Amino acid sequence: MALKRFYGTLARASYPTKLHPVVILAWAKICFFDFCMKLKNKLKVFLVKVFHFEYWPFWIFYIPMYFYGLYLAFRARSFMYFSATNPGMKYGGVMGESKFGILKAMPGKYLPKTVFIAGGSPYCSIIHSLTSAGLIYPLVMKPDVGERGKDVEIIRDEPSLKSYLADKAFDLIAQEYINYDLEFGMLYHRMPGSSKGEVTSVVQKGFLTVTGDGTSALRELISGSVRASGRQEYLYNKFADQLEKVLPLGHRMRLEPIGNHCRGTIFYNANHLINPLLHDVFNRISLDIEGFFYGRFDLKVPSIDDLYHGRNIKIMELNGVSSEAAHVYDPDYKIVRAYKDIARHMKIIYRIAKKNHDLGVKYAPPGQFLNELRQYLIR
Fold first, then answer.
1. Which residue has the higher pLDDT, 347 or 51?
2. Residue boundaries of the structural domains of the chain
């Protein structure tokens, strides 16, 4: 910011002034200061990501858990034991499941308006489907098969919709945008044969924001944010016309309305919300979903009172055995405790799968799964 102001002043100065030693020295000092600030921000981001496990790559963080997973597979006598956890989901919901297919199995009163869009559908056909379903802008577009918030966008007008669809040849779903204040991930499980289960993990999502200090431009606030570090180019393009705007002191600006950790969302441990009322709500929701015993409901709700009474809940997604106990990614959570919680949920998956297998549910063939996994990863 300082460097840009200096360049503006220098451009208006006379030619002799530009070559004055004092001016050259000032230019050098400002350049050095600007370099140091950028280096400081990069170092800050690097150190935070090294010493806070919530930022570690998935495959690194889960290294100790791989050994426990092998132990559970040995006990089940199948590497594919997890596929029997949710017989109503492909491979138990570990990958490749249709979001729309899962939502269709749920009670309609808990769902936002949702439309399936087959890959390659003509634009006029897509508009007709959206109109027929009563979907209006803003709306949410996302892949029907996908994870970790990739290609999920809020579409606010028709030009944005055309731009989004331009390079999307795969199946999509369009959803009503729910503008509720609270967004949660509720991890629930129930043993086969039982009518009662329990919620064992609650994560509350805090969306990516920056807070003004009265002097820094939006560009500087984004570059100095650890959570925005992986999304800088995207955010620079998104807010291209506001990057030089200085946010007033204390003013909070939301940068990302999509609640995913990969997109800068803070995950807060909200397990204090777990009580018998919460168990009852998700028992009522889950009993109607055929072949479902374990997974995380990603939902929005206006208030905690509504949540406890099962009112005005809107479920955007339901994920199967790939669901994590996401409360462990709270910035204040300790890594040993996180591993204990993850191991506990891995054992729950094993116990449900073993029970279903004893009741006649077959484990999926490993060869078929590996072939589809390879295709899924190279897409």
1. 347
2. 1-49, 54-112+178-205+265-378, 113-177
Residue that wins the pLDDT comparison between 173 and 374: 173
Instruction: Assign domain 113-177 to its CATH architecture.
Output: 2-Layer Sandwich (3.30)
Q: How confident is the model at residue 19 (pLDDT cuts 50, 70, 90)?
A: very low
Q: What is the 3-state secondary structure (H, E, C) of the chain?
A: CHHHHHHHHHHHCCHHHHCCHHHHHHHHHHHHHHHHHHHHHHHHHHHHHHHCHHHCCHHHHCHHHHHHHHHHHHHHCCCCHHHHCCCCCHHHHCCCCCHHHHHHCCCHHHCCCEEEECCCCCHHHHHHHHHHCCCCCCEEEEECCCCCCCCCEEECCHHHHHHHHCCCCCCEEEEECCCCCEEEEEEEECCCCCCCCEEEEEEEEECEEEECCCCCEHHHHHHCCCCCHHHHHHHHHHCCCCCCCECCCCCEEEEECCCCHHHCCEEEECHHHCCHHHHHHHHHHHCCCCCCCEEEEEEEECCHHHHHCCCCCEEEEEECCCCCCHHHHCCCCCHHHHHHHHHHHHHHHHHHHHHHHHCCCCCCCHHHHHHHHHHHHHC
Please list the residues that pair with 294 across neighbouring strands.
Answer: 189
